[in-house]
Amino acid sequence: MDPDFHRRDLADAIEAGNFPQWELGIQTFPDTPEQMFEGIDLLDPTKFVPEELAPVRPIGLMTLNANPTNYFAETEQVAFHPGHLVPGIDITDDPLLSGRLFSYLDTQITRLGGPNFAQIPINRTHAPVNDMLRDGFHQDAVHSGVAPYKPNLLDGGCPFFAGAGEHAFVEYPTPVAASAKVREAPASFADHFSQPRLIWLSLSPVEREHVIAAYTFELSKVYERAIKERVLTVLAHIDEALCREVASGLGLPAPTATAKADTAASAALSQLGQRWPATGRVLGIITGAGSDPGAVRAMRDAALAAGLSPLISGPTGAPLADDLGVQRTFAAARSVEFDALLVADAPAPGAGRRRPRRAGRQVRCGRGRPAGTRLPDRLADQRGLPAREADRRPRGCPRTVGGGGRRPAGPRRSHRARGRQGRLGPGGAVGHAPGLGTLPGRRALSLPSARGRLKQSLRPAPGQRRRC
Description:
By secondary structure, the chain is α/β, with parallel strands linked by helices. It has helices spanning 5-15, 71-76, 95-111, 194-202, 205-219, 225-238, 240-250, 293-305, 377-382, 387-392, 447-457; strands at residues 21-26, 36-37, 40-41, 57-63, 282-286, 309-314, 328-329, 340-343, 399-401, 424-425, 428-429, 465-467. The chain contains 11 helices and 12 strands. The two termini are 35 Å apart.
């Protein structure tokens, strides 16, 4: 897996002129003392309001039209903070937002070396700033005046507070009703399943299959059955079919469904049924040794004219023509890099074809071969073993070979029993070879006893010979 393909895809698209865009939209609600809307708690960060109840109003379009010149200066030092507000916007009583108003500022002070991180060029405001913050680490501004406080007499009261004429930030005086301060969440926060069910009912059949497959795949890697059953119980609160299909994939009984009555689905939650722009999509053009360069060139030019980013992929890196290079070989390409594939040539595999060498496939013969690594057929044949039998042998296990005229090797201590990685203590050996277990918190086996047990565990079976 290539962990950087998203970052490279974004940088390549910007470099090619396919500037990505994001549209910013907002939902507006009446400001009520309860801060509720259509039975939805607006202060609950786990809830959202369907677009059918409150349409999204677009207010801006963000376009990325350049890559960073210096990644550290322009990306690593960016200091985002939800308290950076412009006039006309104020914060709500959202408890999650209240915590972030503190934690973001505290994080930037620690991460960027002091309170003056706002003076770093990437964080600096376009409007002039005249405040009373002085000194501290990384202070770049040259402040004038002798009294960085108010009220003062030394500077004649300067600086003065900005008024309404200067469009100063004004906090809205929100009235607060008489109440008691308690450490508990509102009752609406206890609703954990109405919106997951809304999302499930809003998905198309193919999207539901993706959700079922994802749950089944992830839960199949869980060892504890009790945890799987607990998750199935949660899914039973969302939808009976979802719980039943996931339980079937895990081979477990489905608990009794407890989902509530159906709610109105939201078409905006499904990604299908809508049209998305193709500009900037990566199109993989699959070629072969006998591909027609003219046809591949026509495909590439048509893709470029449509705003796509074509990548020519072939069995080797040899160019098809002087102006047709292969950007990805079959061995180096990954499916996540492409949005679509166009097959220009697919020749039948020949008898003497060469397998692509996959990066990350490690085959080491002898000690230290990773567990589960397949032993190549030619090397397994030299040892007299079928390749699949060699696959089943765990890491560090001695290999035995049958037949042949080799002299049987005498019993040896493995490199693990000899105390590799400092496991040979002053009183004996802590063994890791077959039949010799680790004894944590005890005195290790005496060396003669360890040798005897190791010799017995490495003794070849009748009719077989051992080779270390």
